[in-house]
Amino acid sequence: MVTQPGYDALAGLYFETFPTPYLTSLERYVVAAFADLVRESPVEGVVLDVGCGLGQVTADLAGQGLDVIGVDPSREMLAIAKRHHPELRFVQDDARLDATDLGGRRVAAVLARYSLIHVPPSEVPDVLAGWASRMDPGTFVAVAGQTTDTVGEIAEFDHLVAPAWRWHPDRLSAALSDAGFDEMWRTVSRTDAQHRFPDVHLVARRR
Ligand SMILES: C[S@@+](CC[C@H](N)C(=O)[O-])C[C@H]1O[C@@H](n2cnc3c(N)ncnc32)[C@H](O)[C@@H]1O
């Protein structure tokens, strides 16, 4: 499992800085639309909030009726998540999910919000393949992160906490497709006072 010393060190400050995970209404609506998709589909299984951080979105998904587990490599981020949401299940693990015991259950959906950005691009195909191996046809993935307008580009950027990469939406979509997930829809929002880079939210379905 990878460690996240940057997030461990800054977890308390992170909580003070981001008391809510949604910086815009669109971000909240996108997660709600994803939750609707999962809830209204016949797929069985648990929802994984991969890189759940403080667990705020995990709690939001649970509040929307999903059976969700938060997964994150940062012990300190998880400590805050557990303190605020003792009723929810959190697991210390990274996006590869090697240490996540699902008790034989399948995965109905994965949400990776601003967490896959921290996985070195050369490792992303393996990570996505690992998700696909735990998921049946018709299940869902949502990935959100900073993006770039340069077609095909994956650009490392100066994230304040940990190494991170911005993927062009088409490149992200192609990586998901290679792993067995077909894009359903995406939103791209432009830069604003709170976003230095454009942002992508991309939802795909397991084929
Ligand atoms: C920007 S925070 C996002 C937290 C949460 N998903 C949200 O939307 O509020 C990024 C999180 O990704 C986690 N992370 C970093 N590297 C990771 C990895 N390899 N696998 C899974 N999560 C990772 C960090 O520990 C951190 O909690």
Automatic annotation (TrEMBL):
InterPro entries reported for this sequence: Methyltransf_25, SAM-dependent_MTases_sf
Instruction: Give one Pfam family, short name only.
Output: Methyltransf_25
Supply one GO molecular-function term: methyltransferase activity
Q: Please give a single GO biological process term from the UniProt record.
A: methylation
Annotated keywords:
Methyltransferase, Transferase
What sequence ranges are listed for the domain Methyltransferase?
47-138
Checking CDD domains in the record gives:
AdoMet_MTases
PANTHER family membership: TRANS-ACONITATE 2-METHYLTRANSFERASE, TRANS-ACONITATE 2-METHYLTRANSFERASE-RELATED
Write the protein's name.
Class I SAM-dependent methyltransferase
What species is this protein from?
Answer: Rhodococcus olei
